[in-house]
Amino acid sequence: DVLIMDEYGYMFFRDRTGDTFRWKGENVSTTELEGTLSRILSMTDVVVYGVEVPGTEGKAGMAAIVDPDHSYDLVTFAEEMKKELPAYARPIFLRLLPEVHKTSTFKFQKTELRKEGYNISVVKDKLYYLEPRRCRYLPLTEEVYKRIQLGLEKL
């Protein structure tokens, strides 16, 4: 757990380290979430990690999904995810990758993915964000990215 101290000496919870992240006051296990999303997507490789969003507490969930042919139906995916996961555990951002890099022990390499986050000027893969009112994934455009960075887009 990561704690920070305010100017009065009070300590409060900021985030988690390791294979969990905290979003909307809840701890989310990336390993469990990867398993659930992989099962929904017919055993596709999925990497889950937390990304910082300006003006929010904790980290939003992001899932990098191997989809070399861009063939996944994100509407059906969101509907299935809604049935299986609580709102706080649903990935806010999706990144569709042609492949995911693994370590020599076959673990997913999350460091670079986490560092790039959902930055539209850095990531060249297709990016989507979860529109909360309809619980649908929509393309992450430059305009939406700017609104998120300014805290104008509700997540």
Overview of this structure, please?
This protein has 155 residues and is of the alpha+beta class. It is built from four helices and nine strands; from the N terminus they run E-E-E-E-H-E-E-H-E-H-E-E-H. It has helices at residues 30-40, 74-84, 111-116, 142-149; strands spanning 2-5, 11-15, 20-23, 26-29, 46-51, 60-66, 93-97, 126-131, 136-139. The longest helix has 11 residues, at 30-40. The radius of gyration is 16 Å and the shape is globular. It comes from Gekko japonicus. Its EC number is 6.2.1.3. Pfam families: AMP-binding_C.
Question: Secondary-structure blueprint of this entry?
Answer:
Elements lengths: L1 E4 L5 E5 L4 E4 L2 E4 H11 L5 E6 L8 E7 L7 H11 L8 E5 L13 H6 L9 E6 L4 E4 L2 H8 L6
Parallel strand pairs: 6-7
Antiparallel strand pairs: 1-2, 3-4, 5-6, 7-8, 8-9
Helix content: 10-25%
Report low-confidence residues grouped into runs of 5 or more: none
Classify the beta-strand content into a percent band.
25-35%
Number of helices: 4
What's the overall average pLDDT, rounded? 89
Major sheet size, sense and barrel closure = 5 strands, mixed
* Total beta strand runs: 9
Q: Mind telling me the C-alpha Rg? A: 16 Å
Please report the distance between the alpha carbons of the first and last residues.
24 Å
SSE topology string = EEEEHEEHEHEEH
The strand order across the widest sheet is 5-6-7-8-9
Secondary structural class:
alpha+beta
Shape: globular
Organism: Gekko japonicus
Keywords: Fatty acid metabolism, Ligase, Lipid metabolism
Protein name: long-chain-fatty-acid--CoA ligase
EC number: 6.2.1.3
